[in-house]
Write a structure and sequence with these properties.
The protein is of the alpha+beta class. Helix 2 runs antiparallel to helix 8 and helix 6 packs across helix 9. Helix content is about 35%, strand content about 30%. Strands 1, 2, 5, 6, 7, 8, 9 and 17 form an eight-stranded mixed beta sheet that branches. The chain has a seven-stranded mixed beta sheet with strand order 11-12-13-14-15-10-16, with helices on both faces. A two-stranded antiparallel ribbon has the order 3-4. The longest helix is centred in the N-terminal third of the chain and has 17 residues. It is built from 13 helices and 17 strands.
Length: about 375
């Protein structure tokens, strides 16, 4: 059966999201709303690819579905999607990423045929854009990505060459997931006594937490921007969080921990199906003795349990590093991430993953900059960094 791949139009958003919600392997970051979030914030061009065919095999994980259009139900032949964002900068490179700034994305399809059709179209798109590579951020690896037949097929995208496009998979990062019980009371009882005492310490110190929306954004960004400066990392634009709250109003929430009226820790969470995701969290280092970070994470977990979520995603970590051990103490378990890199220029992408070492001097000087200055300069740089 022939598969046709098209670029999603604004009128296709409902169809796209219907497919995402129906797919068992879909993630929050497959939703069409991220196209608008990233475009409105940073003006990056996007290529959201949809694979369609008239019939679906019986063993497809996603059955045919209908979408109401002007009072009529229309059968939608979508069999796969691939969201791609184009990041291009003279210093930071030229890449198509699915998707930047977050841990996961990549191909979402009903069968291998649709996956290959989407990736083949993505390679064509990347070549037209003169991109250096395509980056697909997957939870489960693409099973056929290194099969000889597929590698041989990629050679057609290279001028006068029989050599396949180099493909590298990096699996050095893990996603930390916590299975949640039916209530926050059960969860609290499951913690070790040391962890419970750390949470209670923050309460004894007089800290309190709030969960809300856009009214908490200024307090969120005050903490977030200061923490990013202390880490030596350019901060995202506040518009990014504003657009997340605007485009996902029913599922996105801000969490703040206060000492009186002063915010000490912050996070932003977004729900999708039975998972509550936490893409951003920060705490002010100079108040670490009050344990605001412990109350922050407990508030997020309590919120997740009380709102029916069954998993909490602590986000990306490197095994055995500090953030990994912090998340592990809450009971989170690692799930290996598989990031596939397809080189469109024929140069093999190195498996050296130590980005921090490359920018050690820049990190050192960034930490010395006043926070107000980093709020201005940071987003100009950060928009071009896909991590």
């Amino acid at each position: 059966m022939n598969i046709k791949v098209e670029t999603m139009k604004s009128t296709d958003a409902a169809v796209w999201d219907t497919y995402v919600h129906a797919h068992p392997r879909a993630t929050l970051y497959h939703l069409s709303g991220w196209k608008n979030v990233i475009s409105k914030t940073y003006n990056h061009r996007s290529y959201y690819l949809m694979a369609m065919k008239s019939n679906k095999s019986s063993n497809s994980p996603v059955k045919p579905f209908s979408v109401s259009n002007n009072g009529t139900n229309t059968m939608i032949p979508v069999v796969g999607i691939l969201p791609l964002i184009h990041l291009k900068h003279i210093l930071f490179g030229n890449s198509l990423i699915s998707i930047p700034f977050f841990d996961i994305g990549g191909l979402l399809a009903s069968d291998e045929e649709a996956e290959k059709a989407l990736l083949n179209e993505a390679i064509k798109c990347g070549k037209k854009l003169n991109a250096k590579n395509i980056e697909l951020r997957h939870i489960e690896p693409i099973s056929w990505i290194n099969e000889p037949s597929w590698l041989a097929a990629t050679a057609k995208h290279k001028n006068n060459s029989t050599n396949p496009l180099p493909i590298t998979t990096k699996s050095h990062k893990v996603r930390m997931l916590l299975d949640l019980p039916e209530s926050s009371e059960i969860l609290m009882k499951s913690f070790k006594s040391k962890l419970r005492s750390q949470i209670k310490k923050s309460l004894r110190e007089g800290l309190n937490s709030k969960v809300g929306g856009i009214e908490l954004l200024n307090d969120f960004y005050k903490v977030f921007s200061a923490n990013m400066r202390d880490l030596g990392s350019p901060v995202h634009s506040k518009r990014l969080m504003l657009n997340v709250l605007d485009i996902f109003p029913d599922k996105a929430r801000i969490v703040i921990v206060y000492n009186g009226d002063q915010p000490l820790a912050c996070s932003l969470v977004i729900g999708f199906k039975d998972i509550l995701e936490n893409p951003w969290a920060s705490a002010l280092r100079k108040y670490s003795s009050l344990s605001p970070n412990m109350l922050l994470y407990w508030t997020m977990l309590e919120y997740a349990c009380n709102h029916g979520y069954r998993k909490f995603d602590f986000g990306r970590s490197s095994p055995d590093e500090g953030t990994y051990k912090f998340k592990e103490q809450w009971g989170a378990r690692p799930s290996t991430l598989h990031w596939h890199y397809i080189s469109l220029k024929g140069q093999t992408i190195t498996k050296d993953t130590s980005e921090k070492a490359k920018f050690e001097r820049a990190i050192h000087y960034w930490r010395k900059m006043p926070v107000p200055i980093t709020k201005i300069i940071g987003p100009i740089i950060r928009k071009h960094i896909g991590l």
